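User: Could you walk me through two proteins back to back? I'd like the raw sequence and the structure tokens for each, with a short line separating them so I can tell where one ends and the next begins.

Assistant: Of course. Protein one, sequence then structure:
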Amino acid sequence: MAAPALPTPDLVPAYPVARRDLLLPTVPAHPPALVVSPSAGDLGIRFIRRFVGGFFGIIVVVLLLADPLGGWMAILLALLLLVAVRPVARAWRRVGDSLMRELHTGYATFTLDVGEFRPGLRRPKRGLSYAFGEGGAVAWDFSGCWVLDRRTGAVVGRPAPGRLPPGLYPSPDRPGFETWSGTEWTGDLYSDQEAHRLLRGG
């Protein structure tokens, strides 16, 4: 039996209170200035460069040490990956946090088609994994906000009328805030304290 569909952010009971407290994404009529630093776009590019560089670095180490180490190679590779996973996840989370700040002011300098930023902190999709469950990966839609160039602030995409922007909203079925991708709830949860600190810079 399928789980009942969750309401869109504007139908969640806590939505009016969050709007009153200025905790919801607000899309201005004109392109906003780039106010979040470092931008999600800069952090995203930096993340991709480091991730790709680190991946090739591990491959080089493996190739150089494959013959001398023989059977120990698998253990070394596993250790290298374990050491790399935590900082990679933390760096990706920083991209997501920066993007949430940008979306709060109505724009994005980093966009993605599918994915999530806090996979280790998400809740299950009502009994199914977000990554492998019903519907597969989380789809994003940035048509509800301004998309700006990360360096110049030039307009890359304009908000479509009537579209709810992605960003942080009161969760439909858990305490705290949850990321709305523009099409669906991602399962990326923030406590009330985290959301206040993130969005208000406190």
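----
Protein two, same layout:
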Amino acid sequence: MLDPRVKPEDDVRYLRQVLIILSCLLFSIIATLPAHAQFEAKPTPIWEGVEKTEADKENDDKFIKQVLALTKGDELAAAQGVVQLGWEQIGQGKPNEAIRRFNQAWLINPNLPDIFWGFGVATHVRGDETDEVVRWFEEAFKGLRENPRFLADRGRVLEERKLPKRARFWFRAALDIDPDYVPAHVGMSRIANALGDAELEKTHLDRLKVLAPDLIKSDEETEKTE
């Protein structure tokens, strides 16, 4: 699964720091995990309800120092790098491991909204209740309300949960910010089809023929061969 936050024009510094984190911490991170996070069968976002021991807190501090040493004290870059590890785990179908990574990122920078976005997707993939999933998306929304990628991803999650009308709201919100955002048009076309709105579906498919003609062509060719 590709990280839905990343776009090609992301600045070079961010990408370089992510590569540093990924290469240097993939193995060392596991060794410094707090005991409660390492053995918890179903980890809880931000360790809610978990009472940390003094040893846990010491391990937390050790982990933070280790990561910040690699990024020369740059908390944002460190947290982003660990968040990226979380997205990698989601892509491998390991939502519990992803939550562990997002928890670690939260230790470094608890105000990074991407962490809560990650919690939303991970709890969705894990099959948690919709209210719990939405709760994390709501937290992320506080800092990502102008991010069409986040808004469309929230729509995608609600669509996968068979909530088309709620999904439609978020796809539209994404398009309000970026009228040419392809994933939101794709989502709207699917939602329109699910709701039986042929006119709305055609509107978005026509727009996709302009924005992503290869995508539409691929779908049409698939239908011909079925």
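The domain at 146-226 is CATH 1.25.40.10 (Serine Threonine Protein Phosphatase 5, Tetratricopeptide repeat).

Let me know if you want the two compared in more detail.
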